[in-house]
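=== Discrete structure encoding ===
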Amino acid sequence: MAASVDGGLYVPHPYGIVVGACDIGKRVTLLQHITIGRRDHTDRGRPRIDDGASLMAGCVVLGDITIGSGATIGANSVVLKDVPPDCVAIGAPAKILRRADAPIDAKDELQDAKSQVA
């Protein structure tokens, strides 16, 4: 397997999950019908899913990107860029929103992304 997985991976509905080359942190939740991996065969990078992130049903995470600690990827979202810690990515392509209960430093990271509060 090309993926590196730390402890506490939670997969309550293990159906239709495609996990290619990636790094998955601790206490990550993966729901059904998701895809994680490289964009294409020429892509040398690999996605990094940090501790405590949640990937909802049907989402796609591709490329040399990082999903920050505590981030949530919404159902059926397509994520092709970094998601800061404690943020939410929704849509196709994904739009990044700061959770209302996120720490202040997550808001600061989003200033360049021109995102909104969820």
Notes: The chain has a mean pLDDT of 89.
